[in-house]
Amino acid sequence: MDTVQKTALEVCRHFNIEGELKEFSTFTDGHINSTYLMVFENAGNIEKYLVQIINTHVFKNPRELMENIVNVTAFLRESIAAGGGNPERETLTFLKAADEKYYHIQDGEAWRIYRFIDDSHTYNVIENPAVFESAGKSFGHFQKNLSGYPMDQLHETIKDFHNTPKRLEALKAAVVNNAAGRADKVSSEIEFAVSRGEDTKKLLDLHEQGRIPLRVTHNDTKLNNILFDNESDEGICVIDLDTIMPGFSLYDFGDAIRFGANTAKEDETDLDKVTLSLELFEAYARGFLSACAADLTQDEVDNLAFSAKLMTYECGIRFLTDYLDGDVYFKTAYPQHNLDRARNQFKLVSDIESKLPQMNDIVAKLYEQYK
What we know:
- The protein is 46% helix and 14% strand.
- By secondary structure, the chain is α+β, with helices and mostly antiparallel strands.
- The strands form 3 sheets. Strands 1-2-3-5-4 form a 5-stranded antiparallel β-sheet, covered by helices on one side. The chain has a 3-stranded antiparallel β-sheet with strand order 6-8-9. It has a two-stranded antiparallel ribbon with strand order 7-10.
- α5 packs parallel to α11 (304-325) and α11 packs antiparallel against α12.
- It is globular.
- The chain starts with a helix and ends with a helix.
- The mean pLDDT is 95.
């Protein structure tokens, strides 16, 4: 038994997990936390758990992090049960340690444990529009089931995560500082970002006017953060809840489109390949609105298409800022990697701008169908 396995087993005992350890393996999904699948036999029953080391360099306050997750999943369990669903499969179940906390400090590291949901799988690529539609439905149900959540119970674990005006100000500061001496090479990209500065304020202004509410947002709506049922291939559970924070539902919708409806990879350098797929946009919007249309305000619905532009624009700003700063935040594979990513995102912004009328028509048609 190696050191990690031995430590993980000691942690499990702090969470009152009994029985004989039958299997221990590294769980490869996810890039922030270290995760292990541990299988126990206890009184003839097989019990499976995911045991994680929380990355406290990214999430510096594990208490607030776990308060968010535990409170949100408890609310989800009640909503799912009230709707006739199965909370054991449709949300995560975290274990409480012997000291009544939902995490345990072992050898200076913060550990947590939750039950493994069997007979499920994830997707890393969209194999067909039906998969993306199911993803939209899953995040729509997530939004619907958390409607009415008491927002004063939710911590902002990463401050200003989607504050687009501040992202643009950070870009302008990076241009002035020019830490890596690259600013003169990217004047057209800087101009592209700065010229769209008014877009950064739109959602925040609507919120100030009381037209867009704060909601529980996931903030990492990638396809592989949904578990799909092995038998039905339907999305059943939203996972990776570390970035749950107060925000706008539009952030989650827009980022899902940014990631999922791009016809090219995020760092594709042949920009002719970078377009927004209207087919995939409609598939995701159909799934999302079929689940939560009645719970959205009219202003949220009216800005679903715009949110795809805004989140793509914000991501491009972040890549360009990091390129100017010398690649200090995002991992890169080569010196121009962040610049290629920024150009990719800005090309997608341009394509979305040209398709916004069609995207708005799609949303309006679907909203009439499902509201």
